[in-house]
Structure formats: C-alpha cells, structure tokens
Amino acid sequence: MLIATSITQANERRRVVDVHGQEYLLREFVGAVPQRGTYVEGNETNDNGLPQGFLVSQPPGSVTPPHFHETNQFQVFVGGSGRLGKRRADPVTVQFAGGHTPYGPIAAEERGVQYFTLRQAWDPGAKYLPAMRGRLARGRQRQRLAPQVERPAASVLGRLEAPAIETLIALEADGLGAELVRLGPGMRCVRPGGGGGQYQVVIGGTLVHDGEDLRRLSCRFATADERECELEAGGDGLAVLVLRFPALDRAGEGTGP
C-alpha cells in the first residue's frame, strides 16, 4: 500500500502543541499527529493503527530536551537552522533513531528549524530525560546521522540523463538505509521495497503519484508489502529521499542491534 500526502493537504491538517512552554506547529502527513508535546498516560487513545509522519515547525530559540520514543523513526531537517546534540542539523540532514534510543537536544536558531518526524509505527509521545529514564528499554539502541546534502537546483535535475542515486545511510543487514534519488524530467526509476516499509520525501522537483504532481515537502509511505517502489519524475525532474526502515521481529522491534 502507498499512502501519499501533498504538502497542500498537510497544510490543511495542522495542530499546535505545547512543548515545555513553546508552541510547535505540526502538519499531519501519515497517521495521527501527537495530541501533546510529551507523553502522558492515556495518549494511546490517539493510535489509529497507521505509521506516524508529520512536519514540525519548531520556533526560534526553542530547545527540545533530550528524549526517546518507543518506535523507530527518521527525522529530516528541511528548513531553518539548528543543532541536534553537538551536530549541525541544517537542510537537508537525515537522522535515524531506533526505538528507545535517546537523542537531542534539538536547538532551533534565530529562524527556527523545520523537520519531518517519520515513524515506522504510531508513538504515544516523547519521553523526556532524565524524568522518564525508568521507561527506557536498553539493549537495541541505534542512531545514524547522515552527512548534509544540498537540495538539487531545477537546472541540475533538468540536465540529468540517467538516474543518480546517492547513499546517505548504507544499507544494513536488517534493511535500514537511506538514499537520495535524482531523476530528470519524466524519468522513472524502480527502487527496492519490503523491509519494514519506507518513506519517500520530495526535496526538489515533483513526484508523480496517480497522475498528480507531488511537489517539494510532499511525502509518501510504502508499506512493507510493496516489494518494489516506482519513482516517476514530473516535468521539472525529481529529488527524493528514500528512507528504509529495518524489518520488524514478532515483538514489533527492529531486528538489528
């Protein structure tokens, strides 16, 4: 199954949540956005059985403290400027954090910072440290931070004569991986599916889906039963991130370390 959401549709599904006294704007792409900025008992009632993907606009000068989530997720920094822990998190930067892997803080600078949070499954909310350390399950922590990549200009995409594929997170044994695919106008490319499913995030040009052009910051999720995923560029080419999750074991956890 493919779940596609344009940035226009996501802009119509917005919610403001409070995160330690700061207002964060969330745009819903897949599943249900969090009801709150932190976990509280009862958040589970918002679970609609889908993965959870949304775009966060974090306000200038704000800080998201270190925390963890229960499910695997990618974060893709697409706007503004900021830091993730001790590292820069400027556009376009991809981070993977496995379930129960602490990360952060996320510090927004003077323009704020904008990033996708793309989860393999629905999550009941951020568990901030050190207060919720007792809920942290140890043993499978995993985090990857890819080098920053430039968003390709339309002129660059227009000159491509063949698909260009750049590895951002090298494919791991359980299926975790990330890549940037660039296509010229009207070009098509088939990429592997399966594993634990994948998100495809448009960072330049347009992705054609069911005859519709999905422009920059649109998003598509392919469930694990999609064994192959065809990418089709619109008339101005396409630059798309392909973010692959690890396969899950029967307990719903990644099979990797």
What this model shows, in words?
The chain has 257 residues and is mainly β. The protein has helices spanning 7-11, 154-158, and strands at 2-5, 14-19, 22-30, 52-58, 63-64, 67-68, 73-84, 87-88, 93-97, 106-119, 127-128, 143-145, 164-169, 177-183, 188-192, 198-209, 212-214, 219-222, 228-244. Strands 2, 3, 4, 5, 7, 8, 9, 10 and 12 form a 9-stranded antiparallel sheet that branches. Strands 1, 13, 14, 15, 16, 17, 18 and 19 form an 8-stranded antiparallel sheet that branches. The chain has a two-stranded antiparallel sheet with strand order 6-11. A hairpin with a 2-residue loop joins β16 (198-209) and β17 (212-214). The longest helix is centred in the first third of the chain and has 5 residues, at 7-11.
Q: Approximately how much helix is present in the residues?
A: under 10%
Q: What's the story with the biggest beta sheet?
A: 9 strands, antiparallel
State the distance separating the first and last CA atoms: 28 Å
Radius of gyration, CA atoms, in whole angstroms: 17 Å
Total DSSP helices: 2
Secondary structure class reads mainly beta
Salient structural properties:
nine-stranded antiparallel beta sheet, mainly beta, eight-stranded antiparallel beta sheet, 257 residues, 2 helices, single chain
What is the fold's blueprint, element by element?
Layout lengths: L1 E4 L1 H5 L2 E6 L2 E9 L21 E7 L4 E2 L2 E2 L4 E12 L2 E2 L4 E5 L8 E14 L7 E2 L14 E3 L8 H5 L5 E6 L7 E7 L4 E5 L5 E12 L2 E3 L4 E4 L5 E17 L13
Antiparallel strand pairs: 1-18, 2-3, 3-4, 4-10, 5-10, 6-11, 7-8, 7-9, 7-10, 9-12, 13-14, 14-19, 15-19, 16-17, 16-18, 16-19
